[in-house]
Amino acid sequence: MLEALIEFDIWLFRLVNTGMQNAVLDFLAPIVTNKKNWTPLFIVLIIGLAWKGGYRGRMVLLLTIPVILLSDQISASLLKPWVGRMRPCVELENVNALLGIKKSFSFPSSHATNSFAAATLFSYFYPTKKVLFFTLALIICFTRVYVGVHYPIDVVFGAALGALCAYFVYFIYRKLENRFGKIKFFESR
Protein backbone atom coordinates (compact mmCIF):
# COMPACT_ATOMS: atom_id res chain seq x y z
CA MET A 1 0.00 0.00 0.00
CA LEU A 2 2.76 2.46 0.97
CA GLU A 3 4.75 1.59 -2.17
CA ALA A 4 1.70 2.26 -4.35
CA LEU A 5 1.22 5.63 -2.66
CA ILE A 6 4.87 6.55 -3.20
CA GLU A 7 4.68 5.48 -6.86
CA PHE A 8 1.53 7.57 -7.35
CA ASP A 9 3.25 10.51 -5.64
CA ILE A 10 6.22 10.25 -8.01
CA TRP A 11 3.92 9.89 -11.03
CA LEU A 12 1.93 12.97 -10.01
CA PHE A 13 5.16 14.87 -9.31
CA ARG A 14 6.43 14.08 -12.82
CA LEU A 15 3.10 15.10 -14.33
CA VAL A 16 3.32 18.55 -12.72
CA ASN A 17 7.09 19.07 -12.78
CA THR A 18 7.90 17.91 -16.29
CA GLY A 19 4.56 17.15 -17.96
CA MET A 20 3.27 20.70 -17.51
CA GLN A 21 6.63 22.35 -18.17
CA ASN A 22 6.45 25.47 -20.30
CA ALA A 23 8.28 28.78 -20.62
CA VAL A 24 5.58 30.84 -18.88
CA LEU A 25 5.47 28.64 -15.77
CA ASP A 26 9.26 28.27 -15.81
CA PHE A 27 9.41 32.07 -15.50
CA LEU A 28 6.48 32.64 -13.08
CA ALA A 29 6.72 29.70 -10.66
CA PRO A 30 10.09 30.66 -9.12
CA ILE A 31 8.83 34.22 -8.64
CA VAL A 32 5.56 33.14 -7.03
CA THR A 33 7.15 30.53 -4.77
CA ASN A 34 9.81 32.90 -3.38
CA LYS A 35 8.41 34.32 -0.14
CA LYS A 36 10.65 37.39 -0.43
CA ASN A 37 8.62 38.47 -3.46
CA TRP A 38 5.49 38.56 -1.27
CA THR A 39 7.06 40.92 1.29
CA PRO A 40 5.71 44.19 -0.21
CA LEU A 41 2.18 42.74 -0.29
CA PHE A 42 2.53 41.51 3.31
CA ILE A 43 3.69 44.95 4.46
CA VAL A 44 0.73 46.66 2.77
CA LEU A 45 -1.64 44.04 4.20
CA ILE A 46 -0.27 44.42 7.73
CA ILE A 47 -0.43 48.22 7.63
CA GLY A 48 -3.91 48.18 6.10
CA LEU A 49 -5.31 45.70 8.62
CA ALA A 50 -3.69 47.41 11.60
CA TRP A 51 -4.75 50.89 10.53
CA LYS A 52 -8.11 50.41 8.79
CA GLY A 53 -9.09 46.83 9.64
CA GLY A 54 -10.85 47.55 12.91
CA TYR A 55 -11.07 44.93 15.62
CA ARG A 56 -11.34 42.07 13.13
CA GLY A 57 -8.26 43.18 11.19
CA ARG A 58 -6.14 43.61 14.30
CA MET A 59 -7.27 40.26 15.72
CA VAL A 60 -6.43 38.37 12.54
CA LEU A 61 -2.98 39.99 12.58
CA LEU A 62 -2.45 39.08 16.23
CA LEU A 63 -3.62 35.48 15.73
CA THR A 64 -1.45 35.07 12.64
CA ILE A 65 1.59 35.08 14.94
CA PRO A 66 0.74 31.94 16.97
CA VAL A 67 -0.77 30.24 13.90
CA ILE A 68 2.41 30.62 11.82
CA LEU A 69 4.70 29.89 14.78
CA LEU A 70 2.80 26.68 15.49
CA SER A 71 2.48 25.53 11.89
CA ASP A 72 6.07 26.38 10.99
CA GLN A 73 7.60 24.75 14.07
CA ILE A 74 5.59 21.55 13.70
CA SER A 75 6.45 21.38 10.01
CA ALA A 76 10.08 22.49 9.89
CA SER A 77 11.43 21.63 13.33
CA LEU A 78 9.47 18.51 14.24
CA LEU A 79 8.17 16.62 11.20
CA LYS A 80 10.85 17.32 8.57
CA PRO A 81 13.76 15.93 10.65
CA TRP A 82 11.61 13.09 12.01
CA VAL A 83 10.36 11.90 8.59
CA GLY A 84 13.61 12.71 6.79
CA ARG A 85 12.22 12.55 3.26
CA MET A 86 14.61 13.95 0.68
CA ARG A 87 13.40 16.40 -1.94
CA PRO A 88 12.53 15.10 -5.41
CA CYS A 89 15.27 17.26 -6.96
CA VAL A 90 17.75 15.20 -4.89
CA GLU A 91 16.16 11.74 -5.19
CA LEU A 92 14.95 11.66 -8.78
CA GLU A 93 16.64 12.10 -12.14
CA ASN A 94 15.51 14.46 -14.89
CA VAL A 95 13.76 16.89 -12.56
CA ASN A 96 12.92 20.40 -13.69
CA ALA A 97 14.79 21.90 -10.68
CA LEU A 98 14.10 25.60 -11.15
CA LEU A 99 15.47 26.56 -7.73
CA GLY A 100 18.55 24.40 -7.95
CA ILE A 101 19.19 21.38 -5.75
CA LYS A 102 18.00 21.96 -2.20
CA LYS A 103 19.28 19.29 0.16
CA SER A 104 17.02 20.02 3.13
CA PHE A 105 14.11 17.70 3.90
CA SER A 106 10.89 17.75 1.94
CA PHE A 107 8.01 16.40 4.07
CA PRO A 108 5.88 18.31 4.83
CA SER A 109 6.11 21.47 2.78
CA SER A 110 6.47 24.43 5.13
CA HIS A 111 5.29 26.76 2.36
CA ALA A 112 2.08 24.72 2.08
CA THR A 113 1.70 24.49 5.85
CA ASN A 114 2.10 28.21 6.41
CA SER A 115 0.09 29.36 3.40
CA PHE A 116 -2.85 27.13 4.32
CA ALA A 117 -2.58 28.14 7.97
CA ALA A 118 -2.86 31.79 6.94
CA ALA A 119 -5.61 31.11 4.37
CA THR A 120 -7.67 29.19 6.92
CA LEU A 121 -7.26 31.81 9.64
CA PHE A 122 -8.08 34.71 7.30
CA SER A 123 -11.12 32.77 6.02
CA TYR A 124 -12.54 32.63 9.53
CA PHE A 125 -12.37 36.41 9.78
CA TYR A 126 -13.18 37.25 6.15
CA PRO A 127 -15.39 34.39 4.88
CA THR A 128 -16.46 36.23 1.72
CA LYS A 129 -12.80 36.27 0.62
CA LYS A 130 -12.01 32.61 1.36
CA VAL A 131 -11.89 31.64 -2.34
CA LEU A 132 -9.14 34.23 -2.85
CA PHE A 133 -7.18 33.08 0.22
CA PHE A 134 -7.32 29.40 -0.68
CA THR A 135 -6.59 30.07 -4.36
CA LEU A 136 -3.38 31.88 -3.38
CA ALA A 137 -2.44 29.03 -1.03
CA LEU A 138 -3.10 26.44 -3.77
CA ILE A 139 -0.99 28.40 -6.26
CA ILE A 140 1.89 28.42 -3.78
CA CYS A 141 1.49 24.66 -3.26
CA PHE A 142 1.42 24.02 -7.00
CA THR A 143 4.59 26.05 -7.55
CA ARG A 144 6.46 24.04 -4.89
CA VAL A 145 5.88 20.88 -6.93
CA TYR A 146 6.41 22.61 -10.27
CA VAL A 147 9.84 24.00 -9.29
CA GLY A 148 10.94 20.53 -8.16
CA VAL A 149 11.37 20.97 -4.41
CA HIS A 150 8.32 19.03 -3.15
CA TYR A 151 6.31 15.95 -3.91
CA PRO A 152 2.52 16.38 -4.10
CA ILE A 153 2.03 14.49 -0.82
CA ASP A 154 4.37 16.99 0.88
CA VAL A 155 2.08 19.87 -0.05
CA VAL A 156 -1.19 18.01 0.60
CA PHE A 157 -0.09 17.01 4.09
CA GLY A 158 1.36 20.48 4.70
CA ALA A 159 -1.92 22.10 3.64
CA ALA A 160 -3.92 19.87 5.99
CA LEU A 161 -1.49 20.52 8.85
CA GLY A 162 -1.65 24.28 8.30
CA ALA A 163 -5.44 24.28 8.24
CA LEU A 164 -5.50 22.22 11.43
CA CYS A 165 -3.10 24.61 13.20
CA ALA A 166 -5.26 27.59 12.21
CA TYR A 167 -8.39 25.80 13.40
CA PHE A 168 -6.73 25.01 16.74
CA VAL A 169 -5.65 28.61 17.39
CA TYR A 170 -9.00 30.00 16.21
CA PHE A 171 -10.88 27.53 18.43
CA ILE A 172 -8.91 28.69 21.49
CA TYR A 173 -9.43 32.34 20.51
CA ARG A 174 -13.22 31.84 20.25
CA LYS A 175 -13.33 30.07 23.61
CA LEU A 176 -11.38 32.90 25.26
CA GLU A 177 -13.40 35.62 23.58
CA ASN A 178 -16.68 33.95 24.57
CA ARG A 179 -15.48 33.66 28.15
CA PHE A 180 -13.72 37.02 28.62
CA GLY A 181 -15.06 39.23 25.82
CA LYS A 182 -13.18 41.21 23.20
CA ILE A 183 -9.74 42.63 23.87
CA LYS A 184 -10.43 46.32 24.50
CA PHE A 185 -7.05 47.41 23.14
CA PHE A 186 -8.00 46.14 19.65
CA GLU A 187 -11.40 47.81 19.50
CA SER A 188 -11.73 50.92 17.34
CA ARG A 189 -11.39 54.22 19.12
Jot down its keywords.
189 residues; mainly alpha; Vanadium-containing Chloroperoxidase, domain 1; 8 helices
Structural overview:
- The protein has 189 residues and is an all-alpha fold.
- The chain has one domain: Up-down Bundle (Vanadium-containing Chloroperoxidase, domain 1).
- It is built from 8 helices and no strands.
- The chain has helices spanning 2-19, 23-33, 39-52, 54-83, 88-91, 110-125, 130-146, 152-180.
- Helix 7 (130-146) packs antiparallel against helix 8.
- The chain is globular, with a radius of gyration of 18 Å.
- The N and C termini lie far apart (59 Å).
- The model has no long low-confidence stretch (mean pLDDT 91).
Write the layout of secondary structure elements.
Elements: H1 2-19, H2 23-33, H3 39-52, H4 54-83, H5 88-91, H6 110-125, H7 130-146, H8 152-180
* CATH topology group: Vanadium-containing Chloroperoxidase, domain 1
The first-level CATH class is given as: Mainly Alpha
Shape: globular
The largest sheet is:
none
Number of extended strands: 0
Query: How many individual helices?
Result: 8
What's the domain count? 1
CATH architecture field: Up-down Bundle
Strand content: under 5%
The radius of gyration over CA amounts to: 18 Å
Order of helices and strands: HHHHHHHH
Which percent range fits the helix content? over 70%
Mean pLDDT: 91
Poorly predicted segments: none
Q: Give the terminus-to-terminus CA distance.
A: 59 Å
By secondary-structure content and strand pairing, the structural class works out as mainly alpha
